[in-house]
Design a protein that fits this description.
The structure holds 2 protein chains of 2 kinds. By secondary structure, chain A is an alpha+beta fold. Chain A is about 30% helix and about 15% strand. Chain A is built from 6 helices and 8 strands. The longest helix of chain A has 24 residues. Chain B is of the alpha+beta class. Chain B is about 40% helix and about 20% strand. The radius of gyration of chain B is 30 Å and the shape is flat. The chains are: A alpha+beta, B alpha+beta. The interface between A and B is large, with 44 and 48 residues.
């Protein structure tokens, strides 16, 4: 029978996860995760152990699993008249995604896309095309102009750091992995982002989607999305 | 001389024209028991093995044979509607006995039957009707078919020399469609009429169902609801203005617009913080506006509705008249590419006498000619719609003149050069944000000179900008706007939706639209003046009844609702497969009947849903 290498100490694991993966786990949490893994049917070792721990951290709620040290979190006390521009540290700050909105799509269009998918019309062969191509001499004044750069969507995110602080961020330039349908609770590593008026400006160079998810939050978001869109549309109707 | 050749066309006008060409004018005419149908007798030198023969040319009046349920199931209260999916049917000659008798009588003394029905699916099927009647009278008949796309003399003579066989696959597809429409139509019509008859306002009305009509109605209802439920949403944008050389240049935001004021403000502030903008590129390059594609039936209907203010039905009726008069080619075609071997210059030359576009035609012949673009469709049966010969406008009615004009201008445009221009695009980086300004100069109008239905104008010219230069923009603003609702469906839009969702074929779309108007499932009203100040386009609004039916069935069937296009689209695809030999008629019937039978059963189980919607929705007036 092969002898597996000895399990590294908690400190070593904490160190590795911090330096190599920017995940500064809380020791008690890490200990629990480690115990669970080692008691499983096929306990991982070596690199697999690190990967498994990383995977579980990415699937956790960081407000309980990561250290809320000041240098690992967003600046405190962002007043509404926050500076027009400041830069976050290049050390990584991990945040998790709580909400995502497509800024280039109206609520009505987003709702329609959702309903079409519900009706199975997003499947091949079952699409109902409702605006025929080329028939747009009916477009109102609001529809003029085209989006350049391939017409990619631009998204706004609500993110939360390990201390539970929530701020808005958006894609100044496209960030891989940011799209409607991404997991809620996915982790993003911010390095040296600019913040303007308390909002994070994300670019491909300063924000990296690490993956992961918080199952409960994700399910709640999916279940509640339609109603959320509809109530926001209702608000508009009422003139709010 | 060996035995007689019997030629049968689909309509009297075609019979007369073909007989005229084949006989060289030497023919004798006799009456039949039908006042519209004549028999023309002449001799003609057919291709071997027939050779020089006596010929008799006559016609039918469209379909001769009707399909119906057998006597047992024909009456409305004879059985439960659901049984109609499997009830026995029969083919009988109802009103056209005199025509059928004429064919039988002539066939008895003939050696061969030469079918001259229109070369499309329906025509193929009618050809088999004729064949079956003839063979019953004379089982030894040889049966052939002529392939032709217009009734110009040389074309007809060529077709007469090259007979082909009837395409039984196409005929089978039509037979399948007829049977499905009969069963499904009758079952649903009877059931829904009987179910809803108790409701006030409907009383004795027959509420008919057609598997193409309902999805067509579905589009109208769908758009209506979108318009009614539309909520305008605010959006924001950034505009940069710069004045140079006395010209005001507007730079548009690369992002176009965002639905978030906070983010737009942040981005705008960053622009202002940057103070100067930098020109990142100045690109001048040639551009063109493509000349149009060769004309298909769907395009003709769309453009006819849009620019001529005629409903698609009127457009098709007029086109049919122009065809039987020999002025244009067969107007039911999906083909948007001209065969390379066709002599298009000869057709252009025919238009030189025109006072409206004769000069342009001459210009084409003097070097302006350019081979038409190829679309991606070819139904292998007919070429794109085009003019066969020149017609003096005075010999046409007002509508005929305008449809002919459109078809001809379109054809000449196809044979022209694309319009050419130069665009200059200046790209700007201001803060983090990109902006652009474009100028267009139209250098050569080319096809636009004969085709007023497309517009392309030079814009204001841009002043000089140099790549790399920086400047402080004269003005930068946040602008806002609101989204606006789509309009109600217009006829060209409805045709486009039917086309793109696979409902109906080019031959039937106009009919389905007519039907839903006839049955008062929708109302139409004029939208506004069309281009050129001619009468405006019609837009469709569902009636309460139409609305109630769609909502009811949607509640019953959800994504498979009979008012959604899928079921019919799948049926159309299966009809195509029959034509291609990939599916037998029997399998197709079974599959489709199963699908619709399931929807029928579901509907009967949820009849209350349908009733409730109708009850609450049915004041009988337009909305």
């Amino acid at each position: 029978m092969a002898v597996s290498p000895p399990t590294p100490s908690i400190d070593t694991l904490l160190q590795t996860l911090s330096t190599s993966h920017s995940l500064h786990a809380r020791p008690t949490i890490l200990r629990n995760l480690l115990t669970n893994l080692l008691n499983s049917a096929h306990p991982p070792s070596g690199q697999n152990l690190i990967q498994s721990l990383k995977f579980r951290l990415l699937a956790s709620d960081i407000t309980s699993s990561l250290q809320p040290y000041a240098n690992l979190c967003l600046p405190p006390n962002l007043p509404s008249s926050a500076p027009s521009s400041m830069t976050l540290s290049r050390d990584g700050i991990i945040v998790q995604v709580l909400d995502i909105t497509d800024l280039t799509s109206s609520l009505g269009d987003s709702l329609e896309r959702l309903e079409m998918a519900e009706r199975g019309e997003a499947m091949r062969g079952r699409e109902v095309i409702r605006i025929a191509p080329g028939e747009n001499d009916n477009e109102g004044p609001g529809a003029g102009g085209e989006v350049r750069e391939g017409g990619r969507s631009m998204h706004k995110l609500l993110v939360e750091d390990a201390a539970g602080r929530r701020v808005w961020g958006f894609e100044l330039t496209p960030v891989t992995g940011v799209k409607i349908g991404m997991n809620i609770g996915a982790k993003i590593l911010l390095q040296g982002c600019t913040m303007a008026r308390g909002v994070i400006l994300m670019t491909a160079g300063t924000a990296t989607v690490m993956g992961g998810k918080v199952e409960a939050l994700h399910k709640a978001w999916i279940d509640g999305r339609k109603e959320s869109l509809m109530s926001r549309i209702e608000d508009l109707k009422r003139g709010n | 001389m060996p035995g007689k050749i019997l030629c049968i066309a689909e309509k009297p006008s075609i019979a007369k024209a073909v007989a005229g060409h084949l006989s060289g004018g030497q023919l004798s005419t006799s009456n039949t028991r039908n006042k519209y149908v004549k028999n023309y007798e002449f001799t003609y030198n057919f291709a071997p093995p027939w050779g020089q023969c006596n010929a008799v040319m006559s016609s039918v009046l469209g379909h001769t044979v009707d399909w119906d349920f057998t006597a047992l199931h024909r009456k409305w209260n004879s059985c439960a509607p659901g049984q109609l999916f499997d009830a026995p049917t029969e083919q009988i000659v109802k009103e056209r006995k005199d025509i059928a008798d004429n064919i039988s009588a002539q066939a008895r003394h003939a050696r061969a039957l030469f079918i001259w029905t229109d070369c499309d699916r329906e025509g193929e099927y009618i050809g088999t009707e004729v064949r079956d009647i003839a063979l019953r009278a004379n089982p030894n008949l040889e049966v052939k078919r002529a392939k032709f796309s217009n009734i110009e003399r040389a074309h007809i003579l060529r077709a007469a020399q090259r007979p082909v066989d009837l395409d039984d696959l196409q005929a089978a597809a039509v037979a399948a469609r007829i049977e499905l429409d009969l069963r499904i139509g009758a079952a649903f019509t009877r059931w829904q009429t009987l179910s809803l008859q108790g409701i006030g306002g409907l009383e004795e009305k027959v509420i008919s169902y057609g598997s193409c009509q309902f999805p067509t109605l579905g589009f109208v209802v769908d758009r209506y609801k979108r318009v009614k439920n539309f909520v305008p949403e605010p959006f924001w944008s950034i505009k940069v203005l710069h004045k140079r050389d006395d010209i005001n240049v507007t730079f548009n935001w690369d992002r176009n617009r965002l639905f978030d004021r906070m983010i737009t403000t942040i981005l705008f502030e960053r622009c202002l913080m940057a103070k100067t903008a930098r020109v990142t590129a100045v690109v001048t390059k040639p551009t063109k506006k493509w000349k149009p594609l060769p004309l298909t039936t769907v395009e003709l209907q769309k453009v006819g509705s849009r620019f001529l203010g005629l409903t698609s039905k009127v457009v098709m009726d007029v086109a049919e008249k122009l065809y039987t008069s020999g002025y244009i080619s067969y107007p039911r075609t999906e083909t948007d590419q001209f065969d390379r071997g066709m002599d298009l210059r000869a057709l252009v030359e025919k238009q030189v006498p025109s006072t409206d576009w004769g000069q342009f035609a001459t210009h084409l012949l003097n070097g302006g000619f350019s081979q038409p673009r190829n679309g991606s469709h070819n139904d292998k049966a007919h070429p794109p719609i085009h003019p066969i010969c020149f017609v003096t406008p005075t010999s046409l009615s007002y509508d005929e003149k305008r449809v002919y004009e459109f078809i001809t201008r379109r054809f000449l445009a196809c044979c022209s050069e694309d319009a050419q221009g130069m665009t200059t695009t200046v790209s700007l980086l201001y803060g983090d944000e990109g902006f652009h300004a474009t100028g267009l100069m139209v250098v050569a109008r080319n096809y636009l000179d004969v085709y007023p239905y497309d517009k392309w104008e030079s814009s204001q010219q841009l002043p000089q900008f140099v790549e790399g230069e920086t400047f402080v923009p004269t003005e930068a603003n946040i602008t806002d706007g609101k989204t606006s609702p789509p309009g109600y469906l217009t006829e060209p839009e409805l045709i486009a939706l039917m086309d793109v969702n696979g409902i109906g074929t080019d031959a039937t779309m106009a009919e389905h639209i007519s039907k839903i108007k006839e049955r008062q499932y929708v109302f139409t009203r004029r939208k506004g003046p069309a281009l050129g100040g001619r009468s405006g386009v019609e837009e469709f609004v569902p009636s309460s009844l139409g609305m109630a039916l769609v909502e009811g069935y949607d509640a019953i069937g959800f994504e498979n609702s009979v008012s959604k296009p899928f079921l019919r689209k799948e049926m159309e695809e299966k009809l195509k497969e029959i034509c291609e030999g990939r599916l037998t008629k029997r399998d197709m019937l079974q599959q489709c009947l199963d699908q619709y039978r399931e929807m029928f059963v579901r509907s009967t189980q949820s009849v209350d849903v349908l009733k409730n919607v109708s009850f609450y929705g049915v004041p009988r007036n337009a909305i």
